[in-house]
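Figure S4 source data
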Amino acid sequence: MDFYKLTIQEIKRETPNAVTIQFNVPETLEKNFSFLAGQYVTLKVTLNGKELRRAYSICAAPKENKIQIGIKAVNKGVFSTFANETLKVGDLVEVSVPEGKFNFTPYPEAQKNYAAFAAGSGITPVFSILKTILLEEPKSTIVLTYGNKTPEETIFHDELIELQQHYLGRFFVHFVYSQANVADTFFGRIDKSVVNAVLKNKHTETSFDAFYLCGPEAMINTVSGVLKENNVSEKDIKFELFGTAPSPENQPATEGHTSVTILVDGEETTFEMSQKQTVLEAALKHGLDVPYSCQGGICSSCICKITDGNATMKKNQILTDDEIAEGLTLSCQAVPTSTTLKIDFDNV
């Protein structure tokens, strides 16, 4: 994973516990930081002698020609708290090149109807996608359903209202508040009743071509389930998790060891690892500079390919069955189940 030191150009307080950070990208690096709507970058900092990496979605549209991310402070979140309270304009931060599979490519002649469901900071990649649709697919429409506690805690609240007024008939936003009763909004969370109200009441005459979901795993599971009940094909539902629950089932119980060979940056390294470890944990322990970010199986930074042997993932919400059949795996979730294992990070 390639990192570059970028200067913070602007920090904007979006809500009491969320900021957007814009980086200055030198002209010599503009090609490196070209991106698709919905992609993310990984930030790398050292705090108290420990290296931390976190993935944050780009909330700007590619046409806006800027790298801007949104960071919401979470309870006991070391990195997010540091970003909200300590980072300042002029600071240098190591930033990776953009990546990610939750993305959108516009087609200027397309005439489609899109819907998006987001909760909390899950708005950040969706904001990039919806602005791209509005800017680059002038015949298309998008409906956003967006859940938060209150209007004051809603990232991009005013900008979304401005966009709806500017793109009348093309962009519709439905706010959902769990701790505030506000006229012309939904009260509660994004649940089955809200999804059905949007599809069958607010936009009953609209046939949607694709759905973009981003937020907590429970919300994504709920929305996906209701969409499928409404005969939406799984291939038309795109999602990215912002937080995932632990999954005790599918945890391999093994006491063995594996001889693992890892190819990264053109060099092969072989060593012994415990089958209780993930491939990523073992690689980092042995000092290998393998790509990673969230370490929780919710981004795609650490994807690699199994070229020999077998491993199983403790959790997977990203890779399709076809990709797994091709040998792709998430190194942060993959634990060996064979005595030898070969992993390729270079040719993915």
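Figure S5 source data
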Amino acid sequence: MAIETFTWPTERGSSPEITYRLRTAQFGDGYKQEVGDGPNNKEDSYPITYSGQKAKVLEIMAFFDRHAGAKAFLWTTPLGQLGLFTCKNPAPTPVGGGVFKLTATFDRAFQP
């Protein structure tokens, strides 16, 4: 089965969380060594928001249900970088008039 792509437009404005996983060795004389922890030490996550009609939000939720928080999908970051991501926490909230606000966080995933 091919990897699916998340193609729905998301609202801009939320800042991503980007960190680099490091291993540190601290010595008694104050000297410290740091090195990247593994080949994929960059961890990034992107909060996204989608506002729209109930039918469209149900379509997106079905996409998330198919991936069940563990199966990765393709998504293009706000900087235009295509990558693999997972989503473990989608939250649709009714706003009124059949409109919903869907919030979620996309976490970077890596192929084995």
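The beta strands are 17-20, 22-26, 32-36, 42-53, 73-76, 82-87, 91-96, 99-108. The first helix runs from residue 54 to 67.
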